[in-house]
Design goal:
Low-confidence stretches of chain A: none
Strand content of chain A: 15-25%
Number of strands of chain B: 19
Distance between the termini of chain A: 51 Å
Mean pLDDT of chain B: 94
Strand content of chain B: 15-25%
CATH superfamily of the largest domain in chain A: DNA ligase/mRNA capping enzyme
CATH topology of the largest domain in chain A: D-amino Acid Aminotransferase, Chain A, domain 1
Strand order of the largest sheet of chain B: 7-8-9-10-11-18-19
Bound molecules: zinc ion
Number of strands of chain A: 21
CATH class of the largest domain in chain B: Alpha Beta
Largest sheet of chain B: 7 strands, mixed
Number of helices of chain A: 18
Largest interface: A-B, 23 and 26 residues
Low-confidence stretches of chain B: none
CATH class of the largest domain in chain A: Alpha Beta
Oligomer: heterodimer
Distance between the termini of chain B: 44 Å
C-alpha cells in the first residue's frame, strides 16, 4: 500500500506525460502480484466499492473531529478524501502489525457492507500514514482525479514490459482485475485466452494528409462523418459498444445492443438521426445533437425517442466466423456490403464510397462537404489490412479546409507543463458592432495551438508588454493584436456572452499587421452556423 | 482607575499602546513603532522611530536603505516607552531577529507574538515561553490540517530528488527572508556541501545572515553559472520566480517549493509545484495550541491568519479568546 500511495502522490504533482509514464512503469515493474494488477484497476477506474461513499467518510470524521473544525478544514482543502487523510487522528501506540498491502486493502474493501464499513474502515485507516489514508479513501470512494487517463495507465504498462499498447488494449477489455493473464503474457507467457468474449479490438487510425495527392486507383475515398467512432461487438449472448479509447459505452446506447443479429466486430460512426448529414437510410443530425447522448450512464425513454442513435458502418473486423483484419480493405468492404442486408436499416447504414474521376475532382467534392457538417474525407488504401493504430500510407484523413475568422486577443493564461512559464492559452473576441460606433469585443473562443515555438515567445512577450490587468494566472491585454483563427464549426451556446461557441479553434496566423478594429464582427461568425 | 488593559487597543492599522503612543507592526507610517520582525507586512518603512532587534533593524535598512530613527533593543532588554509602559523583546523563533513583544503597564502583562514557530531553526534564536495575562498570537496556519513534519524529512526529499535527477536543476521556491537561509542551513547540516545557486534577489539577504553569524557555505548566483554548472544543482529562488521566464535558463528544472501551504495538494498544484516541501517558519496547528496551553494566559487574542478555527479550539478547551481584525497582513509565501 505504501508504494501505491507514493505512486498516487507522485502522479498528483507530475505534469509531464513522460514523467507520469515513467512513474507508472517503475511501479509496475517492481510491485508484486496481485497488487500491481489492482493498481492498474484503480488507475483505470475499473474498481467500484459500493459500500463506501464520500458521506461514509464524512460520518466517520464527525465522530472524531469537531464539526466546525472539519467544515473550516474541508472548505480550505477542497477535497473530502484529502481533508480526512490529514485530520484522521493518529492512533495510540498499538501492537506492531505487518504493513497493509494493496491487495489486502482491496480484499477488505470488497467485503464491506454499508453496515460494516463504519467499523472496518477505521481499522484500516489506523494502520496507514497520511499518504496511505489518502490513497485508501480515493480507492474506496472512486474517482481518483489525479490526471491519469486509462489510456495513459495502459501506455505505462506497455512501457514497463516492452509490449505494444495496442495489444494491451486488445486483451484489456476482456480481462478482469487484477489481470493475472495480462501480467503473465507481458512477462513472456502465452497470450490470454479470450474465446467467447465480446471484447474490444484496437481501432485502425489515419494519418493526416498534409499536402500532396494520392492516386485514386490505389485509394478509396469515404466521408469522415462528424459523430463518434465506435466498435460494435457481438460474441454469443453478449453485445457491446466501445468508444475509440476502448471504453465500454454500451449502457449509453442500449438501443443498439439487440440489433446485431450475428457474431461480428464492426467499425463505424455513431450518429443521431437528423437531417444535417446525408446517408442512404435517412440523415444524421449534427454533432451538437449527438452530444445530448454522450456521457450518460442511464438513458431516459425521452432521450431515446428524441435522439435515436444508429451506426454508419465503415469496416468489418470479424464476421462469418472469420477474422478479416489481415485481408485487404477491398475484400473487407465487399464483405461489409454483403452483411448489410442482414442488418436492420433502422439502426445501421453503410458509409458510402465517394466516387471521383481524379484527385482534383475529389477536391472539388470535398469543398461542398461543409454544408453537410462532414469533417472531411478518409482515403483508404485498397490493399490495406486493418491494423491497430496509425500506420503510414495506409489510411489518410483529409480534413476539409477550416473556417477562418479574424479575432482580437483579449486574455492570456499561463500554459501547463513545459509551457508553464509562457502565456500560451489565448481568449479572443469579435466585435459586437462597429468598433467606431461603440461596438465592444465579446469573447468567442480560446486556443492554445497553431503557432510555432518562436511565435509563442513573441506572443508571450506581447502579453507581458501589453498587460492591463491580472487575475491570478490570467492577464487581460490591450485589445490590439489580431489572430486569424481557424475552426471546424460554430454553434450557438448559452455559456458564452457572445452566444456562440467554436469547435476546435486554433491560431491560423498572427496578424501583427492588422489593426484591431478591422477584425470580424459577431454577425460574421454567426453567419457560419450550420446547426 | 481605568479599566483593565484599556491601555492597549487593537485598531485596524495595528495595535496601539495609547499611554506611550507607540504602534506595534503598524500597516502605515507612524511616529513611533515597535516592529516584531523584518517581513514586509510587519516592517513597513517610513516610521519616525523604530524599536526592534538589531538584526531586524539591519534587515529594514537593507530593504529601505535608511536607518533613520532606529532604536535597537536586545532580546531581554527592558525599554521604557513612556506613559508607564515598558517593552521587552523576546525571541520568537520565526526568522533572524524576530521577536515577541512583552508589554507591561501597571502590573498587567501583554505579549504580542508577531510570527513565531516552535520547531528548531539553526538560523535564529528559539521561541521563549513567557507568562502573561493577554497573549496575542498569530494564526497563519490556524487549521488542524496544518502539521509541519520534521524538517529533516523534507530536506531528505529534496536531496533524494536531486540525486535521482542528475540532469536536472532542482529549483526551490523559498521566501527570500528566512526560509531561503533556513533551507540552505539545513542542507548544510544534512551534509550537502556543494555550491548552492541563488536567484539574484536572494543574495543580499544571505550575506546579511552570514554577517550575523549564520554560516551558509558556498553560494553563487545563477546569473554567473554556465548551463553545465546547473545540472544536478540545487537552485533557490523567490516563489514568484518559479514559473517566470527567469526559470527557463535552468536545465530540465524540477520545481520544488518550501512552504507550509504545501501540506495541501491543491495549493501545490496551483503553483505547478512538482516537489512540495512542507517547511514553514510559522507555528503549525499543534504548535499554536501547545503554545497557548503552555503560556496559559487569562485571555488569548488571535490575529493574522485563520482566526476562526483557533477561536473554536479555545472555546472547546474553555479558554477566553477573541479574534482581532487587523488589516495589511498577507498570507506570507510561507
Ligand atoms: Zn513573518
Ligand atoms: Zn506575518
Amino acid at each position: 500500500m505504501e508504494e501505491f500511495a507514493a505512486l498516487l502522490d507522485a502522479l498528483v504533482y507530475t505534469t509531464s506525460r513522460n514523467r507520469k509514464l515513467a512513474l507508472i512503469a517503475d511501479y509496475l515493474r517492481t510491485a508484486p502480484d496481485p497488487c500491481r494488477g489492482w493498481a492498474m484497476a484503480a488507475l483505470t477506474e475499473s474498481l467500484d466499492f459500493a459500500a463506501v461513499k464520500s458521506s461514509t467518510i464524512k460520518a466517520l470524521m464527525m465522530e472524531r473531529v469537531d464539526p466546525l473544525l472539519w467544515q473550516l478544514s474541508r472548505d480550505f482543502v477542497g477535497d473530502t478524501a484529502e481533508t480526512a487523510s490529514l485530520l484522521w487522528p493518529e492512533p495510540e501506540t498499538q501492537a506492531p502489525q505487518p504493513p497493509l498491502t494493496l491487495s489486502e486493502v482491496v480484499e477488505r474493501l470488497s467485503a464491506l457492507t454499508r453496515a460494516s464499513a463504519p467499523k472496518e474502515l477505521p481499522a484500516l485507516l489506523d494502520r496507514l500514514d497520511v499518504k496511505g489514508r489518502f490513497a485508501l479513501i480515493k480507492l474506496a470512494t472512486g474517482g481518483m482525479r489525479i490526471g491519469v487517463s486509462a489510456r495513459l495507465a495502459k501506455t505505462g504498462f506497455a512501457l514497463a514490459f516492452g509490449v505494444a499498447v495496442e495489444e494491451v488494449e486488445e486483451y484489456w477489455h476482456a480481462l478482469q482485475p487484477p489481470y493475472p493473464e495480462l501480467f503473465a503474457w507481458a512477462a513472456g507467457g502465452p497470450a490470454p485466452d479470450l474465446a467467447g468474449k465480446a471484447r474490444f479490438r484496437p481501432f485502425m487510425l489515419a494519418h493526416p494528409l498534409e499536402d500532396g495527392e494520392v492516386d485514386l486507383k490505389d485509394y478509396a475515398a469515404e466521408w469522415k462523418w462528424d459523430g463518434i467512432r465506435v466498435q460494435l461487438v457481438r460474441a454469443g449472448e453478449e453485445t457491446r459498444v466501445y468508444s475509440r479509447s476502448g471504453d465500454d459505452i454500451s449502457a449509453t446506447f442500449p438501443e443498439l445492443l439487440d440489433k446485431l443479429p450475428f457474431d461480428a466486430v464492426l467499425d463505424g460512426e455513431l450518429l443521431v438521426r437528423g437531417c444535417a448529414q446525408g446517408g442512404e437510410a435517412g440523415g444524421a443530425a449534427s454533432f451538437n445533437a449527438l452530444q445530448q447522448r454522450l456521457g450518460r450512464k442511464t438513458v431516459s425513454a425521452k432521450m431515446l425517442r428524441e435522439y435515436p442513435a444508429f451506426v454508419r458502418l465503415y469496416d468489418v473486423l470479424l464476421a462469418e466466423g472469420r477474422d478479416w483484419r489481415e485481408s485487404p480493405w477491398e475484400l473487407r468492404r465487399a464483405t461489409l456490403e454483403s452483411l448489410m442486408a442482414r442488418l436492420p436499416a433502422s439502426h445501421f447504414d453503410l458509409s458510402q464510397i465517394v466516387e471521383a474521376e481524379d484527385f482534383a475532382h475529389l477536391a472539388a467534392i470535398r469543398e461542398t462537404a461543409r454544408d453537410e457538417a462532414i469533417e472531411g474525407l478518409m482515403l483508404k488504401h485498397r490493399m490495406s489490412p486493418y491494423v491497430a493504430g496509425r500506420k503510414a500510407a495506409l489510411w489518410y484523413k483529409w480534413k476539409r479546409d477550416p473556417l477562418l475568422i479574424d479575432c482580437v486577443l483579449m486574455y492570456a493564461q499561463r500554459g501547463s507543463g513545459k509551457r508553464s512559464s509562457f502565456y500560451s492559452d489565448y481568449t479572443f473576441g469579435c466585435w459586437s458592432g462597429e468598433p467606431e460606433a461603440g461596438g465592444e469585443l465579446l469573447p468567442v473562443g480560446k486556443a492554445y495551438s497553431g503557432f510555432t515555438d518562436a511565435e509563442l515567445k513573441q506572443l508571450d512577450r506581447h502579453v507581458r508588454q501589453h498587460t492591463v490587468a491580472r487575475f491570478g494566472p490570467v492577464r487581460e491585454v490591450e485589445r490590439r493584436l489580431v489572430f486569424e483563427v481557424a475552426f471546424d464549426s460554430v454553434h450557438t451556446s448559452k455559456r458564452h456572452k457572445s452566444g456562440l461557441a467554436m469547435r476546435f479553434p486554433r491560431i491560423h496566423r498572427i496578424r501583427w499587421d492588422k489593426p484591431a478594429h478591422e477584425a470580424d464582427r459577431i454577425e460574421n461568425l454567426r453567419a457560419l452556423i450550420r446547426d | 482607575m481605568t479599566a483593565p488593559f484599556s491601555w492597549i487597543r487593537p485598531e485596524p492599522w495595528g495595535i496601539h499602546i495609547a499611554p506611550a503612543d507607540v504602534w506595534v507592526d503598524p500597516a502605515r507610517a507612524v511616529p513611533r513603532a515597535l516592529v516584531t520582525h523584518g517581513h514586509a507586512d510587519h516592517a513597513r518603512g517610513g516610521h519616525g522611530e523604530t524599536i526592534a532587534t538589531p538584526a531586524t533593524l539591519a534587515i529594514m535598512k537593507l530593504r529601505y536603505a535608511t536607518s533613520a530613527g532606529a532604536q535597537p533593543a536586545a532580546y531581554g532588554e527592558e525599554v521604557a516607552l513612556g506613559g508607564g509602559v515598558t517593552a521587552t523583546l523576546l525571541p520568537a523563533g520565526h526568522v533572524l531577529g524576530s521577536a515577541q513583544i512583552l508589554l507591561e503597564h501597571a502590573g498587567e502583562r501583554v505579549i504580542i507574538t508577531g510570527d513565531y514557530k516552535r520547531a528548531p531553526d539553526p538560523t535564529c534564536t528559539p521561541f521563549a515561553v513567557t507568562p502573561c495575562d493577554i497573549f496575542i498570537t498569530e494564526a497563519t496556519f490556524g487549521l488542524p490540517v496544518f502539521t509541519h513534519p520534521p524538517i529533516g524529512e523534507e530536506i531528505g526529499k529534496l536531496l533524494a530528488a536531486r540525486a535521482a535527477n542528475p540532469d536536472s536543476a532542482v529549483l526551490v521556491g523559498a521566501y527570500a527572508l528566512g526560509k531561503a537561509q533556513r533551507v540552505i542551513a539545513e542542507l548544510r547540516a544534512a551534509g550537502h556541501s556543494d555550491t548552492i545557486w541563488l536567484h539574484g534577489a536572494m543574495e543580499k539577504m544571505c550575506r546579511l545572515y552570514e554577517e550575523h553569524g549564520v554560516a551558509l557555505g558556498d553560494l553563487k548566483l545563477v546569473s554567473d553559472a554556465g548551463k553545465a554548472d546547473l545540472a544536478g544543482a540545487i537552485v533557490i529562488a523567490p516563489p514568484a520566480a518559479l514559473n517566470d521566464r527567469w526559470s527557463r535558463r535552468l536545465p530540465n528544472p524540477i520545481t520544488a517549493m518550501a512552504s507550509g501551504w504545501m501540506r495541501v495538494r491543491g495549493r501545490a498544484r496551483q503553483r505547478g509545484v512538482e516537489l512540495p516541501l512542507v517547511i514553514s517558519d510559522h507555528a503549525d496547528w499543534n504548535e499554536l495550541t501547545q503554545t497557548i496551553a503552555e503560556v496559559n494566559p487569562a485571555e488569548t487574542w488571535i490575529t493574522h491568519g485563520r482566526e476562526e478555527a483557533l477561536l473554536r479550539w479555545c472555546e472547546l478547551s474553555q479558554r477566553r479568546a477573541r479574534a482581532l481584525a487587523l488589516v495589511g497582513y498577507e498570507d506570507e509565501d510561507d
